[in-house]
Design brief:
Blueprint lengths: L13 H5 L9 H9 L4 E4 L2 E4 L3 H12 L4 E4 L4 H6 L5 E2 L1 H9 L4 H6 L1 E3 L1 E6 L2 E6 H5 L3 E3 L2 H14 L3 E3 L3 E6 L6 E7 L2 E7 L1 E4 L7 H4 L6 E16 L9 E4 L5 E7 L2 E8 L10 H10 L3 H6 L5 E15 L2 E2 L2 E3 L5 E2 L7 H22 L3 H4 L1 H23 L6 H17 L4
Helix pairs in contact: 3-8, 3-12, 12-14
The structure holds adenosine-5-diphosphoribose.
Adenosine-5-diphosphoribose (APR) binds next to α3 and α12.
Length: 418
């Protein structure tokens, strides 16, 4: 290869030797290898969905139920995707889509409906009653469980999901049919399709396929992170507690009756190993009202990680035959749990646009996708930025910054409109 010979494992066939070869170089061996190169498998589908996270799986499941074919390409293994600990608060829009996708039954049994949330500042605590104010509750049910239910449903319906794919590339987005190429176990594959849904998260390939001169990215990085732990302990409160303290933000959250998820604002330079469990619990308690701290049940952490906080949007969300969905197009800081719910909003618009296109031939829904989805995305971005700004400690804002926050929280206590 490239003029250099590599030792071949004993008994290797020419096919095995050439698998994984990306380019043909001009060398004596090349001609022979070219002939022996594995044949690229080729197939056709309606939609190629890149990324098997919640956005991609939900879209694929909804489309399948309407008779629209898709193939999902996932870079990791199923076990790896299911081991990621992510958000756990589902809002009304996502709940409706899950029902439509036929995957709501386990959630209805095992999820926890919450009618409100608690907010503390200093020693004060007040409750926002979602049910009374908006007529709707939220559901506490882990994103991992949503993803597991989606995988089960896709498998039960014979959905096509390819795992461990590498080198995904999107081509021909401005022609009559797009193509997506990838490798799996060293073998090259090609799928021709009508459209590509880029559901491959912030680090995916889809967004970067849009030429840089045709997209604009907006980004804000926050000067702190969230240190989170998961522990097999009963949650300190049935409802979530968002805490603003002079020592920094804290969040008491839960996954089930014996599985708690807690977070504290930390320095960006901190590493999870810098924080012993004891140090974490002590700091968490200091940021909560005394009556909450006193009843906190602590225990060993079963997961500990630090996440940076970022606001990010890439516009447009459509380019030629490619549509971006979920984290591929936007990221919110986690305060207020809008990430997964905003991804669901994209899926809603794209699914309905594609349905309209395939069922009636009308392209209005897909043509308006980027504008519609972004209008919603920016509202979620604004909310997440506002709630992050209200609840975290910004040392650069000094004592007056804390006073502004206290006044705004006090306003929320007394204003129904707020
Ligand atoms: N090829 C194929 N798959 C890829 C590629 C690639 N080049 N790059 C990334 N992926 C896969 C990832 O392995 C992941 O499984 O795409 C998937 C993207 O999933 P998520 O990052 O979970 O994004 P999304 O499905 O949009 O989920 C919405 O809401 O609560 C938030 O951030 C949280 O993940 C959550 C998001």
């Amino acid at each position: 290869r490239n003029g250099r010979l590599r030792a071949a494992p004993a008994g290797a066939s020419m096919l095995e030797l050439s698998a994984g070869l990306d380019h043909c170089f001009t060398c004596a061996l090349c001609a022979e290898l070219t002939i022996a190169r594995p044949v690229m498998s080729e197939r056709t589908t309606q939609i190629v969905i890149i990324g098997g996270g919640p956005s991609g799986l939900l879209l694929s499941q909804l489309l399948h139920k309407r008779g629209i074919q898709s193939v999902v390409l996932e870079r990791k293994s199923k076990d790896y995707v299911l081991s990621r600990i992510r958000a756990g608060v589902l809002e009304r829009g996502l709940l409706g889509l899950m029902k439509e996708a036929g995957i709501g039954s386990r959630m209805a049994r095992e999820g926890f409906a919450h009618d409100g949330t608690l907010i503390s500042y200093g020693d004060e605590m007040f409750r926002i009653d979602f049910k009374e104010l908006t007529g709707h509750s939220i559901m506490v049910y882990g994103q991992t469980e949503v993803t597991r239910d989606l995988y089960d449903a896709r498998e039960a319906m014979g959905g096509q999901i390819e795992y461990n794919v590498e080198d995904v590339e999107i081509h021909d987005l401005e022609s009559n049919a797009a193509t997506v190429t990838y490798r799996q176990d060293g073998q090259p594959h090609k799928i021709s399709c009508d459209f590509v849904a880029g559901c491959d998260g912030y680090h995916g390939v889809s967004r970067k396929t849009i030429p840089s001169e045709s997209r604009k990215e907006y980004e804000k990085l926050y000067p702190f992170g969230w240190l989170g732990i998961l522990s097999r302990t009963p949650p300190v409160s049935h409802e979530l507690i968002y805490a603003n303290s002079e020592r920094g933000f804290a969040l008491c959250s839960m996954r089930s009756e014996n599985l708690s998820r807690y977070y504290i604002q930390c320095d960006l330079s901190d590493r999870p190993e810098d924080w012993s469990d004891a140090a974490f619990w002590a700091e968490l308690k200091r940021r909560l009202p005394p009556e909450v701290a006193e009843k906190m049940v602590t225990g060993p952490s079963i997961e500990k990680s630090i996440a940076p906080l970022r606001s990010f949007v890439s516009e447009p969300m459509r380019w030629g035959r490619l549509f971006l969905c979920g984290d591929a197009a936007h990221i919110v800081p986690p305060t207020g749990a809008k990430g997964l719910n905003t991804a669901a909003s994209d899926v809603h618009y794209l699914y309905n646009g594609l349905r309209q296109f395939y069922e009636t031939g009308d392209a209005a829904g897909i043509d308006g996708y980027s504008e519609l989805a972004l209008a919603r995305v920016w509202k979620a971005e604004r909310f997440s930025w506002w709630f992050t700004s209200l609840m975290h400690h910004f040392p650069e804002n000094g004592d007056i910054g804390q006073k502004f926050q206290d006044a705004e929280l006090d306003y929320l206590v007394h204003s129904e409109a707020g």
